[in-house]
Amino acid sequence: MVQSNFGNRIFDLFNYILLTVIAVITLYPFWDALIVSITPLEESMATTFHLYPKKITLEAYQHLIKIEQLWKSYGVSIVITVLGTAISMFATTLAAYVLSKKNLPGGRVITFAVVFTMMFSGGLIPTYIVVRELGLTNTIWSMMIPTAIQTYNLIIMRSFFQSVPESLEESAKIDGCSDMGILFRIVIPLSLPVIFTIGLFYAVTRWNDFFTAVMYVTDRDIWPLQLFLRSMLIESESSFQSGGDNPLLLGQSIKMAAIMITTIPVLMIYPFFQKHFMQGVSLGGVKE
Fold it and tell me: What distances in angstroms separate CA 47 from CA 33, 53, 190, 252, one per listed residue?
């Protein structure tokens, strides 16, 4: 018994050490970006390892917040994230619910066609032509509609819906509930953990996406935040190579400040979703 307790303690200690090392390795890049963003240019260039700032300055953030385009892009990204996530969740939920039905005519063929898109696609140029012919280029819809459903998220949600006891749906049908009523009154409340998880996946993807905007958007007024920051960093590199007069553009501070501005909103919403994860688990319990 004593040896067993000693072995458990050694195992727990090893786990704590391992998880601590992994946490440090994971968090240090974010910490380094934060330190560099509030560190003067000469200090950040003096070393590549930044543990703490010897002197704090907010010049990089002050430079960024004065750019009007930054706030326009912030607003566009918020709209795309909120509205795009809502569209994606609505479309994914409906598609997953239909595909989760065993009696769906041609269900296996449709599922195979959906999974097939994970391995093969139409290609970049045909996709662009389709979006252009639909008149979506240079609109915020081009950053939401073409990528409304991600196959991986659809498969996850479909598998979760299949775990919902069929007896609950049969009881609801006996009581006169329609298919849409079953979905919104029974299936979705029991599937809140996966709903919020997939919603978080979509929201983070929408917030971080810039490639879609690069392909379909040339109007600066509807540039999302990521595309604006990408353009700003390219201009920063050009200024460095040409010997620009603004010393702030020659260092890493403004780049790290841009990364922090992009990352902080995601870090702020995650605890909110985490709270709903726990609520979803309690609501999703099915008593036998």
Answer: 13, 12, 52, 12
